[in-house]
Each structure stands twice: as C-alpha cells, then as structure tokens.
Amino acid sequence: MEAYRLCFLGLDCVALHRLVMKNIVKAIGDEIGVGKESKLYMGISEDGGTVVIKFHRIWKSFRNISKVRSYGNETKGTSWLIKSIVSGSREREALTILNRYSINGVPKFYGGALHAVVIEYIPGVDLYAVEYLENPEEVLQQIIDIIKNAYSKAKLIHGDLSEHNVIINLENMKSYIIDWPQYVSTADPRAYEVLKKDVENILKFFKRKFKLDKDLNEVIRYIMKGNNA
Ligand SMILES: Nc1ncnc2c1ncn2[C@@H]1O[C@H](COP(=O)(O)OP(=O)(O)O)[C@@H](O)[C@H]1O
Ligand SMILES: [Mg+2]
Predict the structure, then answer these.
(1) What confidence tens digit (pLDDT) does each residue in 119-144 have?
(2) Is this model's pTM higher than 0.90 or not?
(3) Nearest-atom index, ligand 1, CA of 122
(4) Residue 224: which of 163, 161, 149, 160 has the closest Cα?
(5) Long-range contacts of 61-67 (CB under 8 A, 24+ apart)
(6) C-alpha angle 16/20/25, rounded to 5°?
(7) CA distance 51 to 174
(8) What is the pLDDT of residues 141-199, one digit of tens each?
(9) Cα(137) to centroid of ligand 1, in Å?
(10) What is the best residue among 31, 54, 119 to mutate for testing ligand 1's pocket, by most ligand atoms within 8 Å of CB?
C-alpha cells in the first residue's frame, strides 16, 4: 500500500483552492515576507482589491513559544500542519471579533481556510524597523488606544505584542496591530499578566528607541479604566 504525507506546500495549495472556491480570493501574487511563524503573499480579492494571504507555518520554534501560548497544547503529539491550522483558526477568531467591534488599527479580515487567513494589506513599515518618527508620543498613544479598545470593546488581549507586530503606515502615520493568533480573553485568569507583558514590550521599545518614558502601571490603569474584567 502506498502512503502519502502532506507537506506545507501541499497544505498551502489545498487552502488556496478553498479560498478561491469560497470566493475570498481570485489570485495570489508575490511573496511579501516570511514571518516568525508564517509565510505571506499578496493576493487579489474577488472584487479586485489588494489583500494579504497569510499561511500560518508553525514549525520547530513552536516548542519554545508553546510555553507561553494559551493554545496548542491540545494538539500535543499531532503534526506541525495541525498546529498551523489551529493557529490560523485562532487568528481568524480574533480578527472576526475585533472586526465585529470595529476596532480601529486592526486589519480587516476577509476570510480563510485551514491555516490561511486573508486580511487587508497595510502599506507600511514594521515598527521595529522605523528609525525616525516625527511624533513618537502620538504613535505610542495610538497603539495604546488600539490595545484599550480591543480590551474594553472586544474583550481581547493580543498576547504577543511587540514592535514586531505593529505596522506603521508612514503616509498617514496610522498604526496597526497585526498577528493575533495568541490572543487571550480578558476573562482568562492570565489576562492581567498577559496585558502587562504586551504593554511593557511596547513601552520598552519606545523608551529605548525614542527616549519616551511612560509609567507602565499608569498605562495599564488607563487601558483597564471602566472595565470590571
Ligand atoms: N496585513 C499586512 N499588510 C502588510 N504586511 C503585513 C501584513 N501582515 C503581516 N505583514 C508583514 O509580514 C510579517 C509577518 O506577519 P505576522 O502576522 O507578524 O506573522 P508571524 O506570526 O510570522 O510573525 C509582518 O512583520 C509584516 O512585515
Ligand atoms: Mg509577527
């Protein structure tokens, strides 16, 4: 008897086929990047718009990251492909909720399949690579307000926030928080700890690069103000 093993490229093809069948995309374009745990391509949506097709690709690094993840352990012993599908569906869940509450500064979500997520293309630069900002205070405040809105309206915390998961559109200086599969609900017992880590990462970056000094506890209080969660 012959046996077959599906590889990542095969899974990408199956997912892409489903995206086309579901009328979410009609074409795939150039690769735009390889992230820590994904591969991204430009795409064209059914109505001709430019989108990003993100294929989750959980690979060996997952071992380390899984220690702090809120998910993935349930797939222990199963393959990287399954872990990637779980990661993709986690990101789809987060984006669906964030879009439902119209959280500003989060990419629009168009649909997905298996480990693939189709989102709005954000023309911009990853925050970690930005060398100069005319008004860093304003950019930091925008990021804090996205965290606050996600927290208070959508009841979600990013869970993997850092300068690597923020894109700044340098044309209009609008900030976006991307890469949501590690999200945690505000009702989760670890919520406070996860929120604190997210905010701390961002504040540390702005302190190091733009010499901005904001008090962590004050920012946390601002984010949680008016919430009982
Ligand atoms: N919607 C988007 N528009 C433009 N570039 C994006 C978008 N989403 C991700 N990217 C780019 O791809 C990189 C990896 O995406 P990300 O969602 O952070 O995946 P990973 O889990 O692999 O870190 C980002 O750092 C960013 O440069
Ligand atoms: Mg990322």
Answers:
(1) 999 999 999 999 999 999 999 999 99
(2) yes
(3) 3
(4) 149
(5) 61/36, 61/37, 62/37, 65/37
(6) 90
(7) 18
(8) 999 999 999 999 999 999 999 999 999 998 899 999 999 999 999 999 999 999 999 99
(9) 24
(10) 54
Ligand closest to Cα of 35 equals: 1
CA-nearest of 5, 179, 182, 192 to 81 is 5
Q: In order of start, what are the domains of the chain with their CATH numbers? A: 8-120 (3.30.200.20), 125-224 (1.10.510.10)
Between CA 157 and CA 184 the distance in angstroms is: 5
Q: Which residues are catalytic?
A: 160
Ligand 1 centroid–CA 110 distance in Å is 16
201, 211 contact by CB (below 8 A): no
